[in-house]
Amino acid sequence: MTTRPVAFFDVDETLISGKSMLLFRDWWDALHPRGDRPCALEGKDRSELNRAYYRRFAGVPVAELQSAGREWYGAYRSDPRAFVLPAVTALRRHRALGHLTVLVSGSLWAVLAPLAADLGADRILCASQRVDDDGRLTGEIVRPVIGPVKAEAAAVLMASAGAAPEDCFAYGDHESDLPLLRSVGTPVVVGDDPVLTQHALQDGWLRLPAETGALPLAAVG
What we know:
Elements lengths: L5 E5 L9 H12 L14 H10 L6 H16 L5 E2 H12 L3 E5 L4 H11 L3 E3 L3 E3 L5 E5 L6 H14 L7 E4 L5 H5 L3 E5 L3 H10 L2 E3 L3 E2 L8
Parallel strand pairs: 1-3, 1-7, 3-4, 7-8, 8-9
Antiparallel strand pairs: 2-10, 5-6
Family: Belongs to the HAD-like hydrolase superfamily. SerB family.
Protein name: HAD family hydrolase
Pfam family, one: HAD
């Protein structure tokens, strides 16, 4: 039996042109005004910022957040520059080859799920939000899926799937994706991040341009 290779894709500015967490935060806050200031995502430890972000949803029913994620994605999808087309094309190519396609992101499941369904991705690796006995979010997550944790999550999935890392692929746009890219046999740099570009030049990694555009109206399936 031949094991399917796995192709891992970062999401923000790799598959989509925007930062989904920030865009969804602004969309959510417009509908649910807060008395305090929205959490700033600059100048602090990325893991703590990621945790602080999720605390804004404490008390929200899971079903409500999932519905909001679908609504947000439907609006975002209509943006004529919403997607990074070379990376979307690459994901489609991996699907056509029978590879397992996986989104790896620090963003919310509620936001990532409609994107994965639209693009036909098989799995999502992201932060797990804790839920109380009443089906409401506590505001806490198990751990942020950013930086080295992306590589750890990818390694667990490859092991469980019986896939050899040297046969697998990873796509990323930011230096924080470096551990993920290093964890597979074929790393692909999307865009022109200087750190990743230097690694690509030194190590012969593949590169894709960050050309943006729209997807057809019909969902990809």
